[in-house]
Please model this.
Amino acid sequence: MRSRIYTIISGHFKSWYRSKSNIFWTIAFPLLLIVLFGAIFGSGSTKFDLYLQNQDLNANVPTYYSQGYITVLNNTRAFNLHMVPAEQPDPLTYVKNDAQPHNRGQRLLVLPLGFNQTLKNGGNATVQLYMDQSDQASASLAGIVRSVTISYAASIAGSPNHLFLQQVGIVTRNIRYIDFFIPGVIGMTLLTTGVFGAVNTNGRYRELKIIKKLATTPLSKIEWILGMVGYQLILATISLVVILFFGYAIFGVTATIDIYTVGLVVAASLLFPGIGMVLANFVKEAESADAAANAITFPMMFLAGTFWSRESLPDIMKIIAKFMPLTYVNDGLRDALIYAEPAQALTNTLIALGLAAFFIALGSVLMNWKEE
Amino acid sequence: MSDNLPASLPGQSDRVVQVDKLSKKYGDNVAVNGISFNLTKGEVFAFLGPNGAGKTTTVEILECLRNPTGGRARVLGYDVSKRSDQAEIRKRIGVLPQDFNAIDRLTVRENINYFGAMFKHQLDADKLIELVDLKDKRDEQFKKLSGGLKQRVGLAVSLVNDPDVVFLDEPTTGLDPRARRDVWGVIERLKSQGKTVFLTTHYMDEAEYLADIVSIIDHGQIIASGTSDQLIDTHGGKKTLIIRDAGEEGLKQLLPGFPKAELRNAGDIAIPLHNGELTNILMSLAQTPLHDKEIEVRRPTLDDVFLNLTGRRVSEEGN
Model:
C-alpha cells in the first residue's frame, strides 16, 4: 500500500516539476505578487496611525484645552487618529487588540483627566506618548507630537511652559503591509494548488481514462486520495519554504514556524484538494471544472483577507468571508507566522482542520471510482 | 466455445470468462440484454459490434467497473458481482480501456513502472518495452509520442502484471492503417505467447484477422457467434465477382446476360457467384468489351455477415 501511495505522489510530483506552467503558478507567480505588492504597498500609508485617549471629558464632551490640543494634532495632517474610549481602563491592551487586525502601528497618546483644569490653573500638564522605540516611524512621529505639544503650549496665554510630553516605551511588533501580505500569499498558493490540483488531476485523469485504468488494478480509492494529499503536502511545504525565504531575503520578513503552521499546512493540504474533489464530482468535463475552480477560488482570494484586511470590506462581505475556509487558513497563518498569537492560531488551526476533515470526507465519498 | 456452462472453482478451469444471461439496464435503457458466452484459456475472443451495441458495458462489467443488473459473470472463476472476488479479479486481469492515455509527462518506462507499482508483482518494464517494440522511445515523455506509439504504451501497461486475461477495449480506434497493423502485431505476439485476449472492436477486418472466436453484438444482444469462417459460411452469403472500374456503360453491356449484376461504389460491378458458375461467367465476359478490365473474386467478409444479419453496415466510426 505504501509503495502504491508513494508511486502516486512521485507520479504527480514528476508531472508537476516537468511543467513550466505548474512551476510558474506554484512558485514564480506568488513571488511576483510579493514583489509587486511589496513595492507598491510595502511602506504602508504616508500618514501615521495614532491612537488617542482623551480622558479629560466633561459630560462626554472634550474639555476646552484637550479639544484644542487634538485640533492642532489634526491640523498637522500627519496622523490618522483613532479614538480610544475615555472609560477604557486598559488602553494599551485595547490598542494592541485593535491595531493588529487593522494592520496599524501600536502608538497611543493619552490626554490625562484634569488636563484642562491643570492648564487653566497654571499647573504642569503632561501628555503621554506610548510607542515602541523600534517602530520605524518612532523618531518622526515622536518629533511631530513634540512639535505639536510645544506649539500648543506656546499658544496658551499664561502657561507657555506648563505642557510637557512624556514618551513611554512599549514593546510591540510593528506589522508592515508586507508582513501581513506574505501569509496571505501562502494561503492563496495553498488554495490554488490544492483546488486546481485536485480538479485538474481528477478531471483530466478521468478524461484520459487513467482513473478508469487505475480502478481495474488493486489500487483503492483511499490510496489514490492519500497519494494526492501527500503530493499536495509536499507542494504546500515547498511553497511555504520558498515564499518565507523570499520574504526574508527581499523584505526582511521574519516568521515563526511553529506547530500551528504545520497544522495549518496539513489542514490546507486536505481541505483544498477536498474542495477540488467535490467540484470535480459535480463538473465532469476538465474544462468546465477549471472554470468552476476559478469561480470558487477568486472570490475566496479577494474576500478572505489575502491581499488586504477584511476590516476594510463592507459588512455583508465580512459575513460572507466568515464562511470561506481560506479565511481561517489566512488568519491562522498570520497568527502563527507573524503575530505570534498561539491562542488565536490554535483556534484557526482547529477550524481549518475541522473543515479539512469535512471536505476531504465529502470529496472521498462523492468521488466516482467505479463507472456507474 | 460453448454456452451456459456451470460456474467453475476459481483457478480450476480453462474457462477464463463465463457469462450467463448477463444484463445491464440504465433506467429504461437496456444496454446489455441477457447475453451468454464463454472464453477459453489461450483464445483471442473478439466482441464485435457498432458503437452503442453494449460492448464496453459488457467488458466493464467483466473488469468489475460496473455492476450487472441481471445474470451472472465469472472471470477466472471469480464472481464479478462479489466484492471479495473483485479484489482477486483485479490482481489477475490486464485492462486497456477505450481511449486510454497514460500520464503525459512521464516517460514510457516511468508510465509502465507507475501502473506496475499498483500490483504486488510486476513484469520487467524493459521486457514489456521490447514486446511492444518501443526500445527507442523508452525515455520519451508520453505526450511526445504519436497515436500508434501511445496505444502500444497502453498495451504494455495492460500487461504489466502478467495477467491471465487481457481486456482490450477498441485498441485501434482512431489509428491510421499502419499504426493499426503495428497494434495487431503486438496482439499477435500475445497470442503466440498463449495469452487469453478479450478484444472489443467495431472493425470487422480486425476481428477476422486476430480472433479465434467472434461474437457479434447489436442492440445489447449477441446475434451470432463462432469462428470467422463459420460466421462467414453461415451468414456471409455468396462469393462475388468484381469487375473493377467498369462503370454504368459496362453494366448496360452486362445486364442482358447477367441480370443480377449491380453497380457498386467507384464504378465497380459485382456479380454474385453460384457454385460452378465462375468458368461460364469468365468465358462470357471474354466476349464483351470488359474482357481487359481487372477482375477479382471476393470472398464474403464479416462486414457481409453483419449486413446480412442486421440489414446495415458499420461505418469507419463504428456507427
About this structure: The two ends of chain B are 28 Å apart (CA to CA). Residues 202 and 264 of chain B are 23 Å apart (CA to CA).
